[in-house]
Amino acid sequence: MTEQATIKIQLWSSPIGAPDKLRRIVKGLGLRKINQVVIKPDTPGFRGMVTKIPHLLKVVTE
Question: Which of 4, 12, 39, 50 is deepest in the core (most CB within 10 A)?
Fold first, then answer.
């Protein structure tokens, strides 16, 4: 069984005032609160969502 690569995504800024399309991306990533961190698979779909809203997110590295 192979282990899939993951990325940690942190909601850095509030989506208040952002267009509805960007708010849906934040919700689709499973983020609800500021500074909340979620771990998602490192797939092109999730990477695309992150690149759409770089001003609201941080990719956490350790």
Answer: 50
Is position 53 within any domain?
yes
- Residue 33 maps to which CATH number? 3.30.1390.20
Name, in order, each residue with C-beta under 8 angstroms of 27's C-beta and a sequence gap of 6 or more: none
Alpha-carbon gap, residue 16 to 23, rounded angstroms: 8
Q: Which residues span the domain enclosing 47?
A: 6-60
Judged by DSSP in three states, 57 sits in strand
pLDDT tens-digit readout, 30-39: 999 999 999 9
Q: How far apart are CA 24 and CA 1, in angstroms?
A: 33
